[in-house]
Amino acid sequence: MNYTEENRITLEGVQTQEVSRTFISKVFLWMAGALILTAITSFLIAANFTTVLPFFVNETGVSALFWIAIFAPFALVLIMSVGVNKLPLSALSLLFILYAVLMGVSLSFIFLTYEISSIGLAFTVTAGTFIVMAIMGYTTKADLTKFGSLLMMGLFGIIIAMVVNIFMGSAMMDFVVSILGVLIFTGLTAYDVQKLRRFSAQIGEFDNTAGKMALMGALTLYLDFINLLLFLLRIFGKRK
After folding, report:
1. Ramachandran area for residue 169 (φ above 0: left; ψ -120 to 50: alpha; else beta)
2. Rounded distance, CA 183 to CA 77, Å?
3. How crowded is residue 91: how many other Cβ atoms within 10 Å of its Cβ?
4. SS3 category, 7
5. Residue 118 carries which DSSP code?
6. How far is it, in rounded angstroms, from Cα 194 to Cα 191?
7. CA 138 vs CA 194, 200, 201, 214: distances in Å
8. Where are any strands of DSSP class E within 77-129?
9. What long-range pairs does 163-171 form, CB within 8 A, spacing at least 24?
10. Residue range 70-107, pLDDT digits in tens
């Protein structure tokens, strides 16, 4: 291998690392922006609850807007997941922003249900745990693929358990599910970050497709963070 060839390989390696860092930074910027937007929306809805309430509840019961706020986020995630290859990046970005706002509306109940000190503590613990696991997932050399598969199976299990417990109303089952939820989303954070890191290493350039994948990666980490926060609140949150 001659000197020119060595320079070319070195240059390509540096460019790959720069693209990888750009991709990961975009993921976390999108995620952080979505969390901030959700938090602001939740706080504003809760702070103006008496003003906003008539839009969600009327004389005949809950309004159509209430059901939209509850189920629209699920629909948006489905649309983004199915349409990621067909929708332009601009459309996906707008859908993600709308999703973050609607999640803020849906999650505003936590400000009405829990003491603000409990929310602050849960958020701090969630942020600390998320950061530690994200660093672990990014730096570890261990393959978390099998670990991630088990976590996904566990996730489906607790979803089924939560649905069953709606009818059973067991406080013990609710506590156990919440503990498992914390463990599962803590593990999924590391798994998802490692998956994103590996994907970023395969990108030749940060093009439109990479931009879409960064946004979808941000959505995945956003969901890990929100679910971890909610399960921690279910365990340690002090109700009003």
Report:
1. left
2. 23
3. 13
4. helix
5. H
6. 5
7. 5, 11, 12, 15
8. none
9. none
10. 788 889 999 999 989 899 999 999 999 999 999 998 88
Q: What secondary structure letter does DSSP report for 214?
A: H
| Residue in the block written with tokens 């509840």 | 57
- Yes or no: say if 45 and 108 are a contact pair by the CB < 8 Å rule: yes
Structure tokens at 58: 């009327």
Is 44 in a helix, a strand, or coil? helix
Is the full-model pTM beyond 0.85? yes
Please give the biggest Cα pair distance in the chain: 81
pLDDT single digits (tens) 111-154: 888 888 899 999 999 999 999 999 999 999 888 888 888 898 99
Number of structural domains in the chain: 1
The answer to whether the beta carbons of residues 100 and 37 sit under 8 Å apart is yes
Domain limits at 213? 3-236
User: Cα–Cα distance between 36 and 38 in angstroms, integer?
Assistant: 5
Helix axis angle for 89-107 and 3-47, nearest 10°, is 40
